[in-house]
Specification:
alpha+beta; Immunoglobulin-like; six-stranded mixed beta sheet; 27 strands; disulfide bond; cell-cell adhesion mediator activity; OX2G-like
């Protein structure tokens, strides 16, 4: 009887112990499983799987006015078949769609075309990138039987500021400096700044959206700026020596850092040479050719190799207060040379297409004197003949 009672108690103890273990262990195991397989975790895993199946660059930059290629690719599981590829534009409208291997199935917008690409990848070409092409593009691979897989690429359209090379202008004339930027839609303001060879930069003119060009007070009356956010032109008239320096054309945009280009201006003062001569001693003449210009002119004589010159010419340069330079070239010759040849000085300058020739006019002056004398005598003879004919005509009328 005692053994039976002890057996029953032991059995009851085992049942209670088992019940306690199950009541503590099973919920713990269930909770651990819930952490792994919660809907949120399952969704996150699915998201990683989908994005991992389509490979596409997240962000690209495309230069404006140029063709550009967008690409993406898909990795297929065993048994999957690619039925169709679709590209959506920045407005989620169909940009291009096709069935792989069927060229006749390609349909889409006119400014894009399908490019050759490897298996399980797709490439399209935007023929000429413009501002409207900026945004995010979606490539979709329609798979069977798993469904659609997609990737996205965001495109930023960029442009560079282009300008002229260094320019030269003649003092007193007009000069225009220009620059351009291919994305005026992004521009808020265009600013022109002047930097002298020595000194700080100063604003010259600016133009902003919904406003008129603004010229800074020191330049008003002789500086003009075009009202354009793409092709900007700064005109200076008349140009002065003080305008020489470098000009920066800067575009301020609302999406990027300011972009700029620089053009440097050189100003020329063209020479107006003069020739004079005087007798310094019997049989010796000193000829002077002078020129004021910027930069200094180069003066040569056409009689330097004549054996009747008394040595090479002597050249002197004298800087002037206004930035120009006075050049004096002195040539000493024997007086007999001037009777036989026309001595000339030739002035060369960077602002001239060909040199300026100035003659001392001694020989030409003699010929001109003879010509004037002959012409005068001929005129007197004609007048005398006319007078005689008129007298004869009067006498006939009296008779």
């Amino acid at each position: 009887m005692f053994q039976k009672t002890e057996h029953v108690q032991l059995l009851a103890f085992n049942i209670c112990l088992r019940t306690k273990i199950e009541s503590t262990t099973l919920p713990s195991l269930l909770n651990e499983s819930a952490v792994v397989f919660t809907p949120a975790a399952a969704g996150k895993t699915a998201g990683v799987d989908v994005s991992g199946r389509v490979t596409a660059p997240q962000h690209l930059e495309a230069p404006v006015e140029k063709p550009f290629t967008l690409t993406c690719s898909v990795s297929r599981d065993r048994g999957e078949t690619l039925k169709q590829v679709r590209w959506l534009d920045v407005q989620n409208q169909t940009l291009l769609s096709y069935q792989p291997g069927l060229r006749d199935s390609v349909s889409g917008q006119q400014h894009v075309e399908l490019a050759t690409s490897p298996k399980d990848s797709s490439a399209i070409i935007i023929r000429r990138v413009g501002f409207r092409d900026e945004g995010c593009y979606t490539c979709i691979f329609d798979m069977h039987p798993s469904g659609s897989k997609q990737g996205q690429t965001c495109l930023t359209v960029t442009s560079q500021v282009t300008g002229e090379s260094n320019k030269t202008a003649v003092s007193g004339k007009k000069v225009s400096l220009s620059c351009s930027y291919g994305l005026p839609e992004k521009v808020q303001q265009v600013i022109w700044r002047y930097t002298p060879a020595q000194g700080e930069s100063t604003d010259v003119a600016s133009f902003a959206k919904r406003s008129d060009p603004m010229i800074e007070p020191p330049y008003q009356g002789r500086v003009w700026l075009s009202a354009s956010l793409s092709d900007s032109q700064l005109t200076i008239q008349p140009v002065t020596i003080q305008d020489e320096g470098c000009y920066t054309c800067m575009y301020n945009t609302h999406t990027e850092k300011p972009k700029s280009t620089r053009v440097c201006l050189s100003t020329y003062v063209l020479p107006k040479p003069q020739v004079s001569y005087k007798t310094t001693s019997p049989g010796v003449i000193e000829a002077n050719c002078t020129s004021v210009s910027r930069p200094p002119a180069e003066i040569v004589w056409n009689a330097e190799r004549d054996n009747r010159t008394m040595g090479p010419p002597v050249t002197t340069q004298l800087p002037q207060g206004d930035g120009t330079t006075l050049v004096i070239s002195t040539l000493t010759v024997r007086s007999g040379l001037l009777k036989d040849v026309s001595v000339k000085c030739l002035v060369h300058h960077k602002g001239l297409e060909s040199p300026i020739a100035v003659s001392m006019n001694t020989k030409i002056g003699t010929a001109l004197t003879i010509l004037i004398s002959v012409t005068t005598v001929a005129a007197l003879l004609v007048m005398s003949l006319c007078f005689c004919l008129w007298k004869c005509f009067l006498r006939k009328e009296e008779d």
